[in-house]
Amino acid sequence: MTTLRDKAVLFDSLHRGEEALLLANAWDVASARLIEEAGAKAIATTSAGVAWSLGSPDGDRLDRDRALDLVARIAAAVDVPVTADIESGFGDTPEGVAETVRGVLEAGAVGVNIEDTLRGEELSLRPVEEQTARIAAARRAADAMGIPLYLNARVDVYLSRIGDPGTRLQTTLDRAAAYLGAGADGVFVPGVTDPATVSSLAKGIGAPLNVLAGPGAPAVGELAALGAARISVGASIAVAAYAVARRAARELFGTGTYEALAGDLGFMEINALLRNRA
């Protein structure tokens, strides 16, 4: 039987292979099973998709216990390693983040994303010293449980358009270095996919780089060639699924037709996928 530690070691190795780790982010058990069946080597959750599915907006608004309960359900439903997007840590203090990490491991996941966005009247970034303390607390919590948790430190300089465009690269590299020094294993820089910047980030960070891709971004082969070790799609699949729901509902209540419901996935296929794991 594969232990949690085995899965953690495997998940770490997936960031250091010849091919980039591709993550099609899941938000519930059914989406996780579909993604695994498609050939995923690991499952990542999307905090936005998880929050929406539980009736909450994204952005540190979801209750920690509800988020961890869903992580546990997903981890129990798949064989591959699971990494959880825990937003900024579901805790106001470093110890609060550590408590979340312990909960993630108890839920059966072996990785986390921790972002450095500070939400208030305006989006900003946590002071570096504060964020490194939170990352260090997460690392200590995992180490104390004997699990080599993969800690993906998210730097939101580009995503939140912090500072002058000419300074964003260096600011990101400085924050990445501080987070790695505090115990992070890799760095996630959403909000940028242009080849020159991805290449500069990959060369400057010196640890596995995670980029967020989607429509309009370079193909995975090109991003990998630029140095991206991990390529995820975030909330995009959940958004697309909800778009189908809205389109189908508007068609039903508008023209009274059902064309938006046509697809290549049937009721029995989904049912069988879940019944096989029950």
UniProtKB/TrEMBL annotation:
Give the molecular function GO annotations. lyase activity
Q: Name one Pfam family in it.
A: PEP_mutase
What's the domain of life for this entry?
Bacteria
The protein's matches in CDD domains, at most eight in alphabetical order, are given as:
ICL_PEPM (cd00377)
Q: Which UniProt keywords apply?
A: Lyase
Q: What is this protein called?
A: 2-methylisocitrate lyase
The lineage is:
Bacteria, Bacillati, Actinomycetota, Actinomycetes, Streptosporangiales
